[in-house]
Amino acid sequence: MSNSDPTLYCANHPSTPTTLRCNNCEKPICVQCAVLTPTGYRCKECIRGQQKKFETAEWYDYILAFVVGAAISFAGSLVVRFFGFIFFLLFVLLGAVAGFLVAEAIRRVTRRHRSTRLFQLAAASVIVGCLPVFLWDLITLNFMNLLWVGLYAVSTASTVYARLRGLRL
């Protein structure tokens, strides 16, 4: 008696029998190799290939994003330092507005190029831009301004990352 349905083995794990196939390339994959997508299971190679289509940033986009993010956040941290208590009263609103402005400026200079590393670098540039003011307040032991600048840096960096990444708050 012959078996009309031969046993499939995973392309990455030849000793593992499977019934799954990648819905893109039809390669047999086991449960360990399968990635669940909204349209079905895909192999990790097809997922990587799809993600590369969305990574459009060029090498100079990283430099531009860092410089723009650091410069704008430095200026913003100076404003926060001088108007600290007023900023505290409007902390959430101003942090979000500053983050929105920084994110939009970065989007313009990078021509809307995308990359996970670019988004992370943009958020880090906000923190780096605030460091001179933060360190000055630390050296002069101005703890209230230190608090305002720290809150500004955290709220702005998180908003920049969320806006560039595409998360909607």
Question: How would you characterize this protein structure?
Answer:
- This protein has 169 residues and is mostly helical.
- It folds into 2 domains: 8-53, no CATH class; 55-165, no CATH class.
- It contains 6 helices and 6 strands.
- The strands form 3 sheets. The chain has a two-stranded antiparallel sheet with strand order 1-2. It has a two-stranded antiparallel ribbon with strand order 3-4.
- A hairpin with a 6-residue loop joins strand 3 and strand 4.
- Helix 2 packs parallel to helix 5 (116-139), helix 2 runs antiparallel to helix 6 and helix 4 packs across helix 6 (143-165).
- The chain is elongated, with a radius of gyration of 24 Å.
- The model has no long low-confidence stretch (mean pLDDT 85).
How large is the share of residues in beta strands?
5-15%
Estimated radius of gyration: 24 Å
Q: How do the helices and strands follow one another from N- to C-terminus?
A: EEEEEEHHHHHH
What gross morphology would you assign?
elongated
Strand order of the largest sheet: 1-2
Q: Would you tell me the overall average pLDDT?
A: 85
Poorly predicted tracts of residues: none
Task: Note the main sheet.
Answer: 2 strands, antiparallel
The number of distinct structural domains comes to 2
Terminal residue distance: 62 Å
- What percentage of residues falls in helices of 4 or more residues? 55-70%
According to DSSP, the number of beta strands is 6
Oligomerization category of the chains in this entry: single chain
